[in-house]
Amino acid sequence: MGSVTDVPLVRKTSTTLSDGRALHYFDDTEPYLSGRATRALHDPRPPSPRAAPGGLRWDARTGDWVTIASARMDRTHLPGPGENPLAPSTALRSTEIPAHDYDVVVFENRFPALPRCEVICYSSDPAATVGSLPARRMRTVIEAWADRTAVLGAADGVEQVFCFENRGVETGVTLTHPHGQIYAYPFVPREAATVLRRAREHRTATGGNLLRERMLGELDAGTRVVASGRHWAAYVPHAARWPVEVEVAPLRDVPDLCALDDDERAELAFLYPELMARLDRYFSTADGAPIPLPYIAAWYQAPTAADDGDFRLHLRIMSMRRSPDKLKYLAGSESAMGAWINDAVPEEIAARLREAAR
Amino acid sequence: MGSVTDVPLVRKTSTTLSDGRALHYFDDTEPYLSGRATRALHDPRPPSPRAAPGGLRWDARTGDWVTIASARMDRTHLPGPGENPLAPSTALRSTEIPAHDYDVVVFENRFPALPRCEVICYSSDPAATVGSLPARRMRTVIEAWADRTAVLGAADGVEQVFCFENRGVETGVTLTHPHGQIYAYPFVPREAATVLRRAREHRTATGGNLLRERMLGELDAGTRVVASGRHWAAYVPHAARWPVEVEVAPLRDVPDLCALDDDERAELAFLYPELMARLDRYFSTADGAPIPLPYIAAWYQAPTAADDGDFRLHLRIMSMRRSPDKLKYLAGSESAMGAWINDAVPEEIAARLREAAR
């Protein structure tokens, strides 16, 4: 009927939805909102067949695995406010989350692209944004990311755990409730493989750590630094590809979110929402109203089998918005040839992000 | 004042626009529409400063070159019909093309991302589509592609010539006039580099040609074949990543468009518009009206320095349209991690493309 696990600072309560999918509450504040009442642990919906995850196909031309996931064609698309599946349940309506309120919750995606795809809700408030999360709640999100990275990363056949958020209809998001996703890939995806290969080449050639040198180089240059603390640095990379792009890296060599220590997690819990709030002030309308930025926020963690210390945790936040009324599209040069063209100058992106600090 | 060059089957006339950009007419039918009258060779517009091309930055994290092209922020965006810069000039209005009519024309882009970026207009008719081009005119487009590939590929510092077309506002196209683009990269872009590396690995491991075996494998399997002729095969790849995707390859080992012989060009001139017309019948509205498909059509040619015969010319046509009212977005998994998830089944895409034949 559910199990309670000690995770630092949060209470994790695990249960199972009526179709067999796992759900985990991460509660941070007493009286705990979820996990106490039976109704938080019991999904009253009738059991329904689970959608099959996609199948993998190998692309010999590029060496990539492609997931063919036809069942996802029918997934929920921009439901109205009365139909939000990520809101807490009420006496009248059962959603994906049986509890009547929650702090942070993670559960298996009903329309999985891969065998292990999870959804993480950052707040029970459908109108919340990550930029408005208090550090205490953001810390709970970080604890949940670290927990899922550890658990999924230890599962058979998982080679890469990817915590990310797509926000905005411009990224194809089908639900507006504040949430992210956690994918456990049964292969090392191309980007992680490329960064790992580059880091190993650099180690072989110079003996140094590519990603650490990159971060130190940005702090040293200073022109693209957006924020820096005792444990983290945020900067626009020298060769940024997106109209708005920020990279966030720990100062210490750390392979993944699980390896962050308490101080690092605490600082990140302040920095992450603060950066997101700046992004929401990046563009504004002619009369000064902020334009919430569509973005992809992506945590690059070491592949589960990469234990040589060359891969270093980093976050990239990327937006396709070029101006208040224009988007960047990934067309021929980017999508077909992999050659990125950025209309924005990285130093100017960084200056704008510094201005947007409060 | 302009030079006339013999290209098989077409007359090429080169001139210079008032700001110094090169323009080449490719005429195929007498009386030649352009290049005869002085006004076709003289741009009456006052000289204006040329926009600077972008600068390159090296991304050590991935090994990619990124182009930072801030001058492009001001480029022409969806002009009205009276302002189409790709239409022929009239007595009252001077466009990018001084001639009062033309068959096919190529000229340097006014807002270049790279030092060598060209625009190719497939027709002087702003409402034409590639799917409606007669084979004779398509042949002229092929001759123009081959000419530009040879000329640009021989220029100092050019490592890759890329002929492509982005169509539809969904791909970010800023002009609706039927046109494509030709980029001459001063580096080998990631996709071409990846395919070349894979082909060489395969040669080393097996002695065979990866891209030839891939094409023969598709013809042998048959389930994803869309069209095949005496010289070309068109198929949906086994691991297609896009909701609609077709690959077109010559049966003979050929590195690039210049190396195609007369018979191959002649067949391609029929096949290419025929496939494009099928794409325009792929989706239709509830009352049966066809929905023109947004797409990226991309020619993968051997990098200029790759003379070992492992790289084989192929075309990929990709669309982000998932259904009459839904698009695929390249979000976290694709854009950030390089792990593609396709909601469409390749065999079903191929079946639909076979049905769409007339």
What does this structure look like?
- The structure is a homodimer of 358-residue chains.
- The first copy, chain A, is built from 7 helices and 17 strands.
- With 358 residues, chain A is α+β, with helices and mostly antiparallel strands.
- In chain A, strand 11 and strand 12 (244-250) form a beta hairpin.
- In chain A, helix 2 crosses helix 5 (262-279).
- The model of chain A has no long low-confidence stretch (mean pLDDT 91).
- Chains A and B meet through strand 4, strand 5, strand 8, strand 9 and helix 3 of A and strand 4, strand 5, strand 8, strand 9 and helix 3 of B.
- Strand 5 (64-68) of chain A pairs parallel with strand 17 (341-342) of chain B, so a sheet runs across the interface.
Question: How are the SSEs ordered, and which strands pair?
Answer:
The structure is a homodimer of 358-residue chains.
Chain A lengths: L2 E5 L2 E7 L5 E6 L10 H4 L13 E5 L4 E5 L35 E5 L7 E6 L13 H19 L6 E8 L11 E7 L4 H17 L3 H12 L3 E4 L3 E4 L8 E7 L11 H18 L15 E6 L13 E6 L1 E3 L2 E2 L4 H5 L4 E2 L3 H10 L3
Antiparallel strand pairs in A: 1-2, 2-3, 3-6, 4-5, 6-7, 7-9, 8-9, 8-13, 10-11, 11-12, 12-14, 13-14, 15-16
Key phrases:
metal-binding (chains A, B), globular, homodimer, 2 domains, HIT family, subunit A, 358 residues
Sheet with most strands: strand arrangement of chain A? 1-2-3-6-7-9-8-13-14-12-11-10
CATH topology description of the largest domain in chain A: HIT family, subunit A
The value of Rg of chain A in angstroms is 20 Å
Q: Could you spell the SSE succession of chain A in H and E letters?
A: EEEHEEEEHEEHHEEEHEEEEHEH
User: How many structural domains are formed by the residues of chain A?
Assistant: 2
Note the overall shape of chain A.
globular
Number of helices of chain A: 7
The residue-averaged pLDDT of chain A reads 91
Q: Name the poorly predicted regions of chain A.
A: none
CATH architecture annotation name of the largest domain in chain A? 2-Layer Sandwich
| Chain pair sharing the greatest interface | A-B, 75 and 75 residues
* Quaternary status: homodimer
SS content category of chain A: alpha+beta
End-to-end distance of chain A: 46 Å
CATH superfamily label of the largest domain in chain A: HIT-like
Question: For the report, how would you describe the main beta sheet of chain A?
Answer: 12 strands, antiparallel
Residues in helices of chain A, as a percent range = 10-25%
Organism (chains A, B): Tomitella cavernea
Pathway (chains A, B): Carbohydrate metabolism; galactose metabolism
Region (Disordered) (chains A, B): 37-56
EC number (chains A, B): 2.7.7.12
